[in-house]
Amino acid sequence: RCRDDKSDAVTTAPASGDSHSDLAKQATNPAAPLLQLQLQNIFIPDSTYGASGYANQLIVQPVIPIARQDWLPDFLPHQIFRPTIPIVTSADIDGGPDGTTGLGDINYVYTFNYDLDWGVLGIGLSGEIPTATDLRLGGRHWAFGPAVFAMYASIPNVQVGALVSNNFSVGGGGPGDLNSMSIQLIANYHWGDGWYAGWGDQPLTFDWENGGYYVPLSARIGKVGSMGNQKVNIFLQGYRNVGDSITGQSEGGIKLNVTLLFPE
């Protein structure tokens, strides 16, 4: 059963007087209608498969909520648009060219999100835009596919769920075809004053076209607080791959995230 507009839906944006803990639960919920600007840096030491030397990714990821409009049909709820813009420094390819720095492929997820008694269900689209400035920094595919999101939020201070998408190449100048599934697991525990810990946001990847799979074990700890008048979400995360040794993917790394939050 969908909650009505007057109910205490789990994705309602926190009021200005709410605590940092209330805001933290919004910041770790991919379907929350909370305007955000995520700035993430992933440092990869000498642990890239098929390459040598360090690598780095600077990720800019706006989270843009789109409020439900009264003139739209009732079955279209509030929406979330989340593009991911990577600035990539690649490692030196073994026996090949040196690494380089530039813009990678832009990915995006667009979901329609339904507030239910048990949590949130989102249905939408994902895609990839071939913006990489060098073939070493992206696949150069136009890609498109479905996205599904679900999060169970009926246990106090606990969030459990997943965001699943599968992209299929529909054009572009990249070699071969793309058919790849991404799974971002969600498992967070909040214990007060904006502190939380849980599974990291590093996605699992399954390459149906070439048969490989990438499974990073990941954990993070974070806190939502204030820097002057600006609300922020800061977390530190580490991960290590236990899946296939896919050339170009990292064996492990460290991520530092600083997100600017703009609650209503």
Describe, in plain words, how this protein is organized in 3D.
With 264 residues, the protein is mostly beta strands. 3% of the residues lie in helices and 56% in strands. The chain has 1 helix and 17 strands. A 12-stranded antiparallel barrel has the order 1-3-4-7-8-9-10-11-12-15-16-17. A two-stranded antiparallel ribbon has the order 2-5. A hairpin with a 2-residue loop joins strand 15 and strand 16. The longest helix has 8 residues. It is globular. 37% of the residues are buried. The N terminus is likely disordered.
Distance between the first and last residues' Cα: 27 Å
Task: Count the E strands.
Answer: 17
**Mean pLDDT value:** 87
Task: Report the sheet with the most strands, covering strand number, pairing sense and barrel closure.
Answer: 12 strands, antiparallel, barrel
Shape: globular
Total helical elements: 1
Question: Spans with pLDDT under 50 lasting ≥5 residues?
Answer: 1-17
Residue share in helix? under 10%
**Which class of secondary structure composition applies to the elements?**
mainly beta
Order of strands across the biggest sheet?
1-3-4-7-8-9-10-11-12-15-16-17
Rg from Cα? 19 Å
Strand content: over 45%
* N-to-C series of helices and strands: HEEEEEEEEEEEEEEEEE
Features:
264 residues, twelve-stranded antiparallel β-barrel, mainly beta, 1 helix
Short description:
The chain is mostly beta strands and 264 residues long.
Write the layout of secondary structure elements.
Layout: H1 20-27, E1 35-44, E2 51-52, E3 55-66, E4 79-89, E5 92-93, E6 101-103, E7 106-115, E8 119-129, E9 141-152, E10 158-172, E11 179-192, E12 195-199, E13 204-207, E14 213-214, E15 216-227, E16 230-241, E17 252-262
Antiparallel strand pairs: 1-3, 1-17, 2-5, 3-4, 4-6, 4-7, 7-8, 8-9, 9-10, 10-11, 11-12, 11-13, 12-15, 13-14, 15-16, 16-17
